[in-house]
What we know:
elongated; PRC_barrel-like_sf; mainly beta; ribosome binding; Ribosome maturation factor RimM; rRNA processing; 173 residues; Elongation Factor Tu (Ef-tu), domain 3; RimM_N
Amino acid sequence: xxxxxAIVGSAHGLKGEVKLNVRTDAxxxxxxxxxxxxxxxxxxxPVTIASVRSYKGSTFVTFAEYADRTGAEAMRNxxxxxxxxxxxxxxxxxxxxxxxxxxxxxxxxYELGEVTGLEPGPAHDYLIVREPDGLITRVPFVKAIVTEVxxxxxxxxxxxxxxxxxxxxxxxx
Length: 173
């Protein structure tokens, strides 16, 4: 199974440097000079990291195979991917593909919808839930709200605050 380490963003300068949207929790280990990555789409790679630098919270790299701005622009929106290391399993951590398709239930077992994706955020990720009426709800993926992920029962339990889902009724005094 391929996992996304980063998504290539815009070119920066004339020498092929690009900004990365980092998707790994270990960038200091994954994004090092000399590391080779397959790409998605595959025809742009493989690529080898030639330089790495951080500036104001952003990560910038150059690739040995793309040494100018034109080449860097061709890489835009490409994913840098790796084969998963199944030995590195974390407790209370899930891959997006494991969450998609799970049934979203409230603590009493009533259906809230179906998980259709995971969206990274600056402070925490969001579960994307398609409600039965078709509306899309972004649920903060924090333990206080998503209280349980049960892959065996194919569901997530969401203890949502009032008003998060479309059919919640808010009491107005």
